[in-house]
């Protein structure tokens, strides 16, 4: 038979266990209810609002062509280069609803820009596919809610290649040098 202090301890554990089970059940019902309803339009799985992709435009000069991607908020992004003529910029938790793509015709090294939607690990992803007219070097620069893809124009790169100059070092003349045997 249990002593009174052991009985109180046993009751305390029983109450604690019961409270834990009730809390877990309540959380499970809440989670099931949230999944049944699902995220609303413009929300991710966590119910947070999605950033919106606003505009895609281009700027070009003799040395490079830039694609400017603007979102409503700063967003995480990932760039991949799966093929020599393809560059992908994936924006996680971004909606493409209402995006304005101003890159409609080839410009410089850029052959075209398309916007797609996909999913990664259950989160919506806006994918910007940049198709290049020819192989070229590129770099990505971001500042807050703007991501810029700078693609070098190969002709400008060849013209800007460094010039190698020959230099010679003058050797001391034999008349000014003293010989150690003299």
- Secondary structure: number of strands: 10
Based on CA atoms alone, the radius of gyration comes out at 32 Å
Distance between the termini: 118 Å
**If helices are DSSP runs of H or I spanning 4 or more residues, what is the number of helices?**
2
**Structural class by SSE content:** alpha+beta
Q: Which residue ranges are poorly predicted, with pLDDT under 50 across at least 5 consecutive positions?
A: 32-38
Query: What portion of residues belong to β-strands?
Result: 35-45%
Largest sheet: 6 strands, mixed
Choose one word for the global shape: elongated
Please give the share of residues in helix. Answer: 10-25%
Instruction: List the secondary-structure elements in sequence, H or E.
Output: HEEEEEEEEEEH
Mean pLDDT: 78
Describe this structure in words.
There is one protein chain. With 182 residues, the protein is α+β, with helices and mostly antiparallel strands. It is 22% helix and 38% strand. Strands 1, 2, 5, 6, 9 and 10 form a six-stranded mixed β-sheet that branches. Strands 3-4-8-7 form a four-stranded antiparallel β-sheet, with no helix packed on it. A hairpin with a 2-residue loop joins strand 3 (77-83) and strand 4 (86-92). It starts with a helix and ends in a 23-residue tail after the last helix.
């Amino acid at each position: 038979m249990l002593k009174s202090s052991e009985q109180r301890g046993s009751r305390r554990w029983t109450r604690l266990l019961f409270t834990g089970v009730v809390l877990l059940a309540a959380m499970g019902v809440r989670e099931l209810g949230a999944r049944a309803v699902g995220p609303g339009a413009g929300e991710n799985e966590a119910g947070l609002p999605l950033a919106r992709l606003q505009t895609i435009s281009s700027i070009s000069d003799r040395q490079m062509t830039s694609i400017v991607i603007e979102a409503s908020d700063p967003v995480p992004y990932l760039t991949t280069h799966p093929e020599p003529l393809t560059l992908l910029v994936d924006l996680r938790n971004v909606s493409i609803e209402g995006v304005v793509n101003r890159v409609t015709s080839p410009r410089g090294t850029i052959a075209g820009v398309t916007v797609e939607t996909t999913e990664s690990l259950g989160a919506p992803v806006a994918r910007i596919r940049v198709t290049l007219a020819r192989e070229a070097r590129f770099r990505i620069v971001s500042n807050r809610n703007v991501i810029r893809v700078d693609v070098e124009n190969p002709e400008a790169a060849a013209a800007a290649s460094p010039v190698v100059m020959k230099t010679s070092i003058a050797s001391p003349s034999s008349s000014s040098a003293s010989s150690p045997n003299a």
